[in-house]
Amino acid sequence: MYYFCMAETKTKTAIDQRLLPLIEHLARVGRRAAEITLEPGGLRPRHLIALKLLSDHGPASQQLLADSLSLDPSNVVGLLNELEERQLIRRRRDSVDRRRHIVELSARGERELCGAYERLQLVDDDLLMPLSAKERATLYDLLVRAVGAKTPPCDLPEEPLARRPEVRRQQ
Length: 171
What we know:
Elements: H1 2-9, H2 19-38, H3 45-57, E1 60-61, H4 62-69, H5 73-85, E2 89-93, E3 101-105, H6 107-127, H7 133-150, H8 165-170
């Protein structure tokens, strides 16, 4: 039934073509397959995204990571506790501002991330089999651009403490 509806949309105008239901359906199918594939390592998608951000952008403050993941800071603490417990990340105090924690990927975290991404490649290949390599690359670029427009980057430079207005007022 769903595939029949999809075939009909090819003749509709661009205004009638809603992307969100298709993206949601593809995500749901992919999520099920990914959960089965990731079961051996026990990593969940939110773990992978946090590890990938740290791998791509290097160490980040806990707050910037929360912003990049679009999560409440208290939820990020729980997520980071899980990752730290498994020795996939390290947290340390910022040498400039001791109130802040800097999060970085551990060597074990890098290995786990690489292994998980290798297993997820099989899911990608199965899920996106109808698309050519060029179409997959285009889809990836478009999704990265769409996600980037709605998510603050993890590597935003933070203002030095002395330049922050609230610190200047206190001095």
